[in-house]
């Protein structure tokens, strides 16, 4: 990974008026066209966090936005359900003038991607679930990981992020301090209210009852050493989603960044 920050020239950054909020969004124009990729990020994460993957996957247009309360998008005035965040994603696409996308969700964004695919199946050509779970009815992480993920301190305190990165993200972050330093520099901190609202959106939410009803082609990507989302969750989702394919990476929760080119190649072959 290399440290890089988004610019308006690279990502065509724009502010969209959606559901009474101003949403920070971006379009990275691809080299080949075709179906765009909608990239839904992890909890509290800004769109900059996905830049290593965006660099590794130049062919399609890639659409990104800061979820309400994450990055530079303001938080809603009250807690939302996951279906509300999915509605915002749908409205972002409408404002951008995009009808159909390949949807990729990472971690918390993977739960959002599942909800989006259920809520707006006509918009979702292919579904890519990365480092995620089926929601509250999941194989849980350790108590220590849950406690560290329950608050946004790691986004505000870079030294804290570097200390705990290996414990919560696993993989390369366990042994390579530089990876943690680069990751800490890749994001704009969320608002605390927005972060806690995203945590609350998952309360009572589970995709297990309806995963078997998803009809679009689906691939489940997961790290073999993922403290946040144990690998068993990926196996469960791949088993329940009709004809879903499971691909494992020799890394942790953030394999999309540490194994960006291999991830991009896997998705390229799938779509």
Known CATH architecture: 3-Layer(aba) Sandwich
User: What is the gyration radius calculated from CA atoms?
Assistant: 17 Å
User: What is the CATH homologous superfamily assignment?
Assistant: Alpha/Beta hydrolase fold, catalytic domain
How many distinct beta strands?
Answer: 8
The coarse silhouette is: globular
Per the CATH scheme, the topology name is: Rossmann fold
Biggest sheet details: 8 strands, mixed
Oligomer status: single chain
Structural class by sheet pairing and helices: alpha/beta
Report strand order across the widest sheet. Answer: 1-2-4-3-5-6-7-8
**Poorly predicted spans:** none
**Strand proportion:** 15-25%
Helix content: 25-40%
Count of discrete domains: 1
CATH class designation: Alpha Beta
From the N-terminal CA to the C-terminal CA, the straight-line distance is: 24 Å
What would you note in describing this structure?
Helix 3 crosses helix 4 (108-119) and helix 7 packs across helix 8 (177-184). A hairpin with a 2-residue loop joins strand 1 (14-18) and strand 2 (21-28). Helix content is 38%, strand content 17%. The chain starts with 7 loop residues before the first helix and ends with a helix. The chain has 12 helices and 8 strands. With 271 residues, the chain is an alpha/beta fold. The protein has an 8-stranded mixed sheet with strand order 1-2-4-3-5-6-7-8, with helices on both faces. It has a single domain (8-270), classed as Rossmann fold (3-Layer(aba) Sandwich).
């Amino acid at each position: 990974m290399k440290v890089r920050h988004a610019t308006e020239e690279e990502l065509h950054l724009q502010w969209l008026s959606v559901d009474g909020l101003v949403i920070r969004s971006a379009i990275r124009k691809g080299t080949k066209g075709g179906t765009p990729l909608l990239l839904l990020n992890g909890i509290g994460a800004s769109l900059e966090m996905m830049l290593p993957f965006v660099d590794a996957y130049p062919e399609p247009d890639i659409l990104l936005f800061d979820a309400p309360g994450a990055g530079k998008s303001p938080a809603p005035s009250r807690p939302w359900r996951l279906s509300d965040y999915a509605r915002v994603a749908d409205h972002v696409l409408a404002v951008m003038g995009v009808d159909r996308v390949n949807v990729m969700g990472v971690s918390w964004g993977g739960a959002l991607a599942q909800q989006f695919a259920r809520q707006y199946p006509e918009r979702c050509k292919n579904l890519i679930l990365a480092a995620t779970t089926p929601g509250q009815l999941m194989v849980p992480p350790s108590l220590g990981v849950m406690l560290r993920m329950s608050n946004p301190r790691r986004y505000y305190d870079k030294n804290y992020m570097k200390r705990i990165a290996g414990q919560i993200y696993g993989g390369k972050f366990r042994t390579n301090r530089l990876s943690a330093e680069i990751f800490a520099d890749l994001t704009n901190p969320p608002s605390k209210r927005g972060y806690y609202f995203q945590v609350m959106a998952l309360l009572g939410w589970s995709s297990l009852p309806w995963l078997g009803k998803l009809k679009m082609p689906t691939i489940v990507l997961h790290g073999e050493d993922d403290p946040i989302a144990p690998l068993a969750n990926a196996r469960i989702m791949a088993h329940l989603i009709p004809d879903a394919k499971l691909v494992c990476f020799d890394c942790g929760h953030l394999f999309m960044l540490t194994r960006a080119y291999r991830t991009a190649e896997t998705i390229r072959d799938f779509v």
